[in-house]
Amino acid sequence: MDPRYELPSRNYFAREALPQMYTEVRQSLADRLANVQHFALTSDMWSSRTCEPYMSVTVHFIQDWEMKTACLQTSYFPQDHTGEHIAEALQDAIASWKLQEKHLVAITTDNGSNIVKAVELNKWLRMQCFGHRLHLAIGHGMNDTRVTRAISLCKKIVSCFSYSWKKRRHLVEVQIQRGLPSHQLITESATRWGSRQQMVERVLEQEGALAKVLSSDKKTRHLVPTWQDLEVLEAVQKVLKPLQDFTDALSGEEYVTLSYVKPVLHLFNESLLACEEGDSELCKSIKTSIVEYLNNKYSEPATTDLLEMASFVDPRFRATYIPTEKVDALKQRAVLEVETLLGDQSSCQPPYLRVPTVPEPADGEAAVAPKAKKKTLASFFKCKATTTAPTKRGAIENELSSYLQSSSVDSDTDPLKWWKDHEVVFPALSHLARKYLLVPATSSPSERVFSCSGNIVTCHRASLKPDAVDRLVFLAQNL
Questions:
Q1: Cβ–Cβ contacts within 10 Å for residue 145, how many?
Q2: Looking at residue 376, what is its pLDDT?
Q3: What is the DSSP letter of 189?
Q4: Is 421 helix (H, G, I), strand (E, B) or coil?
Q5: Going by C-beta distance under 8 Å and a sequence separation of 6 or more, which residues neighbour residue 333?
Q6: Which has more confidence, 149 or 48?
Q7: What pTM was estimated for this model as a whole?
Q8: What are phi and psi of 76, to 5 degrees?
Q9: Average of per-residue pLDDT across 46-67
Q10: How confident is the model at residue 253 (pLDDT cuts 50, 70, 90)?
Q11: Does residue 325 surpass a pLDDT of 50?
C-alpha cells in the first residue's frame, strides 16, 4: 500500500459515502416505480432495542414478468399508534415515492386493530396475513385444558434442561445408550406456532431418554409425561405437522403466493384437516376448530373476491377451486375489469381490438368509382356474406374462453413465466394477471425488514439516529 494513501475515516462513510449511496439507490428505485402499473404493500410496526418505535413499508410489483420487492422505508414513528396516525403515515409513505392510490391493489397486514382501522380509513383493500391467521386459528384450536396442561409440561421440561448442564450431559449419555439422535430440546416462541410443533415433536422423539433422566432425580420426577400427556401431544403433533410447510411456502416474496391461498384452504377442508376414522376425539376437535376459524375469517366478500380472482388468473388453478355457482359471475367480473384496464391503458391495447380505418382521399382528389362489371347468371345465386367485426367485450370473452380451455399446466410451473410465454396469446387477460398475482399472501416481507433492523441496531449501536437506521436498512434491503 502506498504510504501516502489516507484511509477514509468513519466520518467519511457516515457523512458522505452512505448518504450518497442512499440517494443513488433511492433514485434508481424511484425510476423503476415510476413505470409500475399496479403495486401492493405490506406494513408492520416494530420497536428497537432502545424501545424506539418504527414502521416499515415494503412494495411489491411485477416487472418483465418477474416478482420484484423493495423496502420503501423504516421510519421513526413517535406518535401514538392509533389508526388515524398510521393511516396518515401510510399516505405520506406512498406520496413520498409518487405512487398513486388508484394503482394500489391491496395491502397485506397482520390483524392488529390499529392497522386494520388505518386501512379502512384510507379505503384500501386489505389482505389478511395468512401466517397470522393460521397462528390464531391454531391457538383457537388448542384452547383445551388437556392441551394446555400437556404444552405447559413440555415447556417445564425444556426449561429444566435449559438451566442445568448436568441434565444436558446426562441426556446425551442416555441418547447414546438408547441409540437416539443427539438432538437438543426446542423452546417454544409465543409468536411462532411452528416452534410449538417443533417442541412437541422433539419431546416425543426423546420421550424415553427424557423419562429416564427426569426420573433419576426426585426433584424432577413429577415432570415425567404420563400416558395421557403423550396421547394429547401425539394428537397435537398429528394435526400440526402437515401445516408446517404451508406457512413457510406462503411467506415467500420472490414468487407468486396469493393464488395459493384458495387452494390451500380447500386442501385443509378436504384433506389435511378433514376428520378421519382413526382420529381421537381431541384430534377431531382441534381439526374442526381450526377449519371453522379459517373459513369464517376468509369468508369476507372483499377478501373472497381477491382470492378468487388471484386463483382464477393463475394458469395452474383457474376455476378449479372456485364454487361452480360463482364461476359465471367471476367471468363477468373479469371481463368488466379487463375492459376497465384496457381503457386506462389504451397504449397497451392489443392489435385485434383496434378498428382498422380506411384512408380518405386527399383534398382535390376525386374519388374514382370502380368500373361496374357485367353481372353473370351465377351472381344471382350468391349469398351475401355478413361479416361483423367482434366487439371489444366479445373479443375479451373469446380470449377468456380460450384461456379456460387451454391445456392444463403442471403444478410446479411458475405462473409468471407461463404468462410471459403466453402474453401474445392472451394479451387482454395478461393485464389482469399483472394486477392480482403481485399481492403477497403474508406480511413476512415487513417482518424480514425488522429482522434486518435488529442486526443493524445492536446493543453496540443502540445510539444510531432514526434517519441513519432508515438509510442503513434501506440499503441493506435494496442493494
A1: 7
A2: 59
A3: B
A4: helix
A5: 305, 309
A6: 149
A7: 0.83
A8: -65, 135
A9: 90
A10: confident
A11: yes
pLDDT above 70 as % of the chain: 90
Direct distance between the N- and C-terminal alpha carbons of the chain, in angstroms, rounded to an integer? 29
DSSP state, 192?
Answer: B
Mean pLDDT for the stretch of residues 217-244: 90
CA dihedral 306, 312, 315, 320 (to 10 degrees): 120
330 exposure class (CB count in 10 Å sphere: 0-12, 13-18, 19+): middle
CA distance 157 to 170: 14
Residue 94: closest CA among 118, 116, 73:
73
C-alpha cell at 434: 399483472
Three-class DSSP category at 11? helix
| Side-chain-side CA neighbours of residue 415 (13 Å) | 26
What is the Cα–Cα distance from 274 to 277, expressed in whole angstroms?
A: 10
Grid cell 408492520 in the structure block, residue: 44
Q: How far apart are CA 384 and CA 180, in angstroms?
A: 87
Query: For residue 361, what pLDDT is reported?
Result: 47
- pLDDT surpasses 80 at 92: yes
Query: In this structure, is the dihedral angle defined by the CA atoms of residues 427, 429, 431 and 433, taken in order, positive or negative?
Result: negative
Instruction: Compute CA distances 399 → 17, 233, 312, 409, 428, whole Å.
Output: 53, 53, 14, 18, 8
Give the mean pLDDT of the chain: 86
The Cα 136–Cα 43 span in angstroms is 19
CB-count burial class (<10 Å; 0-12, 13-18, 19+) for 379: exposed
Match 384500501 to its residue by C-alpha cell: 124
Adjacent-strand bridge partners of 43? 57
DSSP 3-state percent helix, strand, coil across the chain (nearest 5):
60, 10, 35
Between CA 479 and CA 469 the distance in angstroms is: 15
Q: At 70, phi and psi to the nearest 5?
A: -150, 150
Backbone angles phi, psi at 127, to 5 degrees: -100, 125
